Amino acid sequence: MIQIGAPAAGLLLVLPIVTPLAGLLLLIGWGGRHAERIGISLLFVCLGLAIALASIVWSNQAPLSYWIGGWAPPLGIALKADGLSCALLLLTSVILVASGLFALGQFAIAGTPAPSRASVSFWSLALSLCGALNIIFLSNDLFNLYVALELLTFSAVPLVSLSGTRETLAAGLNYLLFALFGSVLYLLGVVLIYAAYATLDVSLLAQAVRPGPPLWLALALMSAGLLAKTALFPLHLWLPPAHAGAPAAASAVLSGLVVKASFFLVVRLWFDLLPGGPGAAPATMLAGLGAAAILFGSVLALRQVRLKLMIAYSTVAQIGYLFLMIPLLNGALAAGTWDALAWTGGWLQLIAHALAKASMFLAAGLMAEAAGHDRIDELGGIGRALPITCLAFCIGALSLIGLPPTGGFVAKWLLMSAAVRQGQTIWALVMVVGGLLTASYLLPFIARAFTAQPLTFTAVSRRREVLVLALAIGTFALGLVPPKPIEALEIGRVDQLKASPP
Amino acid sequence: MSETDLFGLCGAGLVGLGLFGLIAEGLPLRKILAFNLLGGGVFLIFGVVARRGAAAGLAGDPVPQALVITGIVVAFSATALAVSLVLRLLDWEEAADPSQPGESGEAQS
């Protein structure tokens, strides 16, 4: 399956990683007052690269891989882009570009020519975050992935503490400690895998692994580490204060993308290393934690009095849905088939949530700017003051609840159909209850936003309002996409099933 | 018991101590130290793996050694970031309560 594309194609796999990291150096060395311009233009370049890569993989209908420096694994590191990687690469650039556009001018000190320190920090962190995410979605080497995970943490933690207040510093430190705990566990798993199989390349490992105590121990350690970074219940404690305390543009990226990267690796570990699937017990355990996350996250969201904290708790709940895809895929693999419904449903849920949540966090940022606070009780009537922002928030909320016609509806519908078809109705039931709970914390807020008498709100930038709406329309459009492009998520998957031993 | 086994057991012991510290300790500085202990244990296990995988007349498998060097750099940066956050928090504590520099920051955060 490994195929070396033409040099130009190989370059397309390297450039999404090199561009933001080279830009980071440029920005630190020469940035200063140009920080904003360098940052946003490089994010646009990354978007262009992601589009180019996706269009090549789409036209070949086959994954693209490249050995860095021409060194073949196990010595070298392989980069690989299948349909899923391309989709996530695109998602990363879209959300980063949107958050970047939202942040334009936000971190500059008005009226002074000198750049503020927060501005340089924000843009360098955004670029390193982009580089780290791109490595995670493209790399095929477990240790390389460890380094990328650390880079991601080191970019995400300062974003949380950007404002430098005591609360955000404490939230950032707490996040960092959770993340370090996770990465050391992941690294320990990497050692055990290297000790047992003498390679860290995912494709080579898939052929070499034999189920046994070393493999189970390694996978358990790595999964526990990744779950801490994904903030899956009960390791979610760090997420709400961190995501709610960050500036709006940073929250959108943190909630939309950063926690998804480690989830992506959980799935790669259990389904790429083990072509036969994880087996019933691990799959049920992961999905059980996901179900608990949906219920606890939603109930906690219901009890919040601050809007940003409510949205952050809703992230905890929505992450749970992602894990429900694992037992469904596993059930199909155990029967010797591939469940396309569960696969595309799970990843669509990730994409739809990323777009919806980014738009909702940015909308919450605008509402907080207009009102001067984000206390839910005092935001009644804000829908009359900021109709565009509130419309965006509504679309995002519909997607989170799972109402048509949004991406969230299609994703949850696919997952539920897969669950019902396989007779694993318990997971479908969890999704129904989760949807009702989500509605119960989002709809009252929306109703009051449009019906209550507005208090005094200051005006916000129209450009930002439109940007937030554009992201929300992305969520909406995802619900109208015909099946063919969605099948692209499976490029490189069906071959794998055929290649794996029965 | 061979030399390699002994180092392996030491590594496992450090990992155990570090994990316990990271979970059970309340103060951030102690958690950071526990993280370093845990990291040290993992790096030692890397060394043991390198030794056990030695072949072709080499004293050790070079790949895990290369990985350890990267790992140490990453752990160092992580510690630096964590300590700088603790120091910034300490500034806030001192501003809030000038009479007790030092201790209050560690205790509160």
Number of individual domains of chain B? 1
Principal-axes shape call of chain B: elongated
Amount of helix of chain A: over 70%
Strand order across the largest sheet of chain A: 1-2
By secondary-structure content and strand pairing, the structural class of chain A works out as mainly alpha
Euclidean distance between termini CA atoms of chain B: 44 Å
Classify the beta-strand content of chain B into a percent band. Answer: under 5%
Terminal CA distance of chain A reads 18 Å
Please tell me what the overall shape of chain A is. globular
Q: How many strands, what sense, and barrel or not for the largest sheet of chain B?
A: none
How many DSSP-defined strands of chain B? 0
The count of helical stretches of chain A stands at: 21
Q: Assembly type of the shown chains?
A: heterodimer
Radius of gyration of chain B: 18 Å
- Which CATH C-level class of chain B is it? Mainly Alpha
Helix content of chain B: over 70%
Topology:
The complex is a heterodimer of chains A (502) and B (109).
Chain A: H1 7-31, H2 35-60, E1 64-67, E2 78-81, H3 83-103, H4 117-138, H5 142-160, H6 166-197, H7 202-208, H8 213-230, H9 239-245, H10 248-273, H11 280-302, H12 307-323, H13 325-334, H14 340-371, H15 382-385, H16 387-401, H17 407-421, H18 425-451, H19 462-478, H20 483-487, H21 494-499
Antiparallel strand pairs in A: 1-2
Chain B: H1 3-24, H2 28-52, H3 62-96, H4 103-108
Helix pairs in contact in B: 1-2, 2-3
Descriptive notes:
Chain A is mostly helical. Chain A has 21 helices and 2 strands. Chain A has helices at residues 7-31, 35-60, 83-103, 117-138, 142-160, 166-197, 202-208, 213-230, 239-245, 248-273, 280-302, 307-323, 325-334, 340-371, 382-385, 387-401, 407-421, 425-451, 462-478, 483-487, 494-499; strands spanning 64-67, 78-81. Chain A is globular and about 65 Å long. Chain B is mainly α and 109 residues long. Chain B is built from 4 helices and no strands. Chain A binds chain B through residues 143, 146-147, 150, 153-154, 157-158, 161, 164, 166, 169-170, 172-173, 176-177, 180-181, 183-184, 187-188, 190-191, 194-195, 198, and chain B through 15, 18, 22, 28, 31-32, 35, 38-39, 42, 45-46, 49, 52-53, 61, 63-64, 67, 70-71, 74, 77-78, 81-82, 85-86, 88-89, 92, 109.
